[in-house]
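Quick one:
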Amino acid sequence: MEAQLEKKSMLWINLLSIVIPLVVALMLGIRQKFDLGAWTKVLPHAIGMINSLTAVLLLYGFYLIKQRKIEQHKNVMTGAFTLGGLFLVCYVAYHISNPSTKFGGEGIMRYLYFFVLISHIGLSFIVLPLVLRTYYFSWTNQIARHRKIAKIAFPIWLYVSITGVIAYLMIKPYYL
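Output:
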């Protein structure tokens, strides 16, 4: 019974890991934007805060697990996981209702911005299935499997969160 539940869970994790990036890519390709109201103009700033808070929670969660404060670690990581979901909702809401902002920097800053942005986006696709599996293994009390994947997922997720903040700060002057 447990093996069947895990198989079903892994199927959902795999499906989400494919569908979410595809939906985001398709959404970014839509030229006709939906009018969700002026409030969506503040979403990039909210997304920057969400990425900042996620990075802080990831670091705090890492500290807690090193202190063997497992329940606190679990709660903090659930907060980080929840912020990931909130990020996705805000990101989709902003991009379906607003045109993409063009980076106006020049020279080395332009190359730096695109390096940060491209590595951020690429690794966000890679970290999604890792985070989903890490979270699943934690909540199903498969701690050895959780630890094994968390060692890979943590630094990538932290990098994605921090580069999200850096990309936001670099493009912030160009928001309308």
